[in-house]
Amino acid sequence: MSGDLKWNKIFGAGLGTVFAILVVQQVSGAIYATHAPEKMGYLVNVPDEADAGAAEAELPPDWGTVLPAADLAAGEAAFARCQACHNIAAGGPDGIGPNLYGVVGGPVMHRAGFAYSDAMAAHKAEAPTWGYDQLNTFITAPNRYVPGTKMSFAGLRDTPTRINLIAYLRSQGSTGFAIPAPDPARQPGAAAPAEGAAPADAATAGTESGAAPAEAATGAATTQTGDVAPPAATSAPSND
Questions:
Q1: Using the 8-state DSSP alphabet, how is residue 116 labeled?
Q2: Widest CA span of the chain, in angstroms?
Q3: Cα(173)–Cα(100) distance, rounded to whole angstroms?
Q4: What 3-state class would DSSP assign to 5?
Q5: What is the pLDDT of residue 57?
Q6: CA-to-CA distance for 122 and 166, rounded, in angstroms?
Q7: 50, exposed or middle or buried, with CB in 10 Å at 0-12, 13-18, 19+?
Q8: What angle do CA 237, 106, 67 make, to 5 degrees?
Q9: Which of 181, 164, 150 is nearest to 62 (CA)?
Q10: What whole-number distance in Å separates Cα of residue 121 and Cα of residue 202?
Q11: pLDDT for 234
């Protein structure tokens, strides 16, 4: 009889211990339960895909209008953030990034001997020249424009600052790269063409403004022989 009670006490103590552990676990879980915060302590302002797509859909600057009015001193100040990686002196050495003297209008990968990334080499096959639009898009978000580039710069989102910077870069060995004539389609407030739609020709523009089709056609002919810079102005001399 006494032996049976001894083992009953041992089993009872074991069951009691297990029960106590389970109770403590449930109680502590209820007391110290974690909940997701209603508001994050640190807000990381990352634009969503819709915002990024809208930004990319905006018209590029009208270089014929903005470059002559650009602030070169402000552009030089903006270049200060680039000096940790880039030299811009004529005949200067490469740094972490290539020397940028003569880069505007020059060929992509213009510095012979510099170890460019494979991503930049692939990009050169698609867009071989650093025109104004190309530089503007690249400086805005380098890794978005050339995925895989070794350039770690996050990008410069402020449009006036980019314009001043590009104007300054042009003043350093690229003044021979022509500034195009003002483009009415790129003026602030100009409506972007619908996707897949051909840009309006001179005759259509003249008709919408109240001119007769014949007058619009005459205006188009005058424009083609007038002050508008020829398409060849967008090509770039080699700066190597």
A1: -
A2: 123
A3: 9
A4: helix
A5: 55
A6: 23
A7: exposed
A8: 95
A9: 181
A10: 38
A11: 36
Please say whether the beta carbons of 136 and 125 come within 8 A: no
Residues 6+ apart with CB under 8 A from 108: 120, 123, 124, 127, 128, 129, 130
Write down all domains in the chain, each with its CATH number in brackets.
62-177 (1.10.760.10)
- Rg, the chain, Cα only: 32
Q: Which two tokens stand for residue 187?
A: 């003026």
Cα 191 to the center of its chain, rounded Å: 22
Q: Which amino acid is at 83?
A: Q
Closest by CA to 143, choosing from 130, 156, 160, is: 156
Transcribe 49-105 into DSSP letters: HHHHHHHHHSPPP-HHHHTTT--HHHHHHHHGGGTTT---STTPPP-SS---TT-TT
pLDDT tens for the chain, 240 residues long, are 455 677 777 888 888 888 888 888 887 777 776 655 554 444 444 444 444 444 445 688 999 999 999 999 999 999 999 999 999 999 999 999 999 999 999 999 999 999 999 999 999 999 999 999 999 999 999 999 999 999 988 899 999 999 999 999 999 999 999 999 999 887 766 665 554 444 443 333 333 333 333 333 333 333 333 333 333 333 333 344
One-letter identity of residue 120: M
SS3 176: coil
